[in-house]
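::Amino acid chain::
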Amino acid sequence: MEIVFSINNNAEIMVMPAAPEFEIAEAQGNDTFQGLTVNIRMIGNKELRTMSLSSFFPSKRYPWMSPYADVNPQAYIDFFKSIKTQRIPARIVISDNNDREVLNMAVSIDNFTYKYRKNGDVDYTLDMTEYVFVRVGGING
């Protein structure tokens, strides 16, 4: 499995060193209203997907790492901090072991926490929310 982040239409790409287990939450904005004799369930719009990744950025090459991954934890930290500073969306692409795309989603970085280990590796947690590009149409749009 491989996880790749990119910004600005692949102008900058970061291959994650390891693919941790991940979970995607796909909520629905449903509501329940009380009627006179029964409750009524209204099915709402699909909400934005959210996900979180937790793993570590290695400071040396491990045998199980992606060959395209960086071994400089600071490069990853700078990449994600830059996304937040520039206030731009990133794209996360996850592919399985057969190179089939499992997820391809634009995201906003909601929270990025990291902790330095004594051996130089850096633990991290990255919380993201789906980002939807809004198109403003004209008369024919």
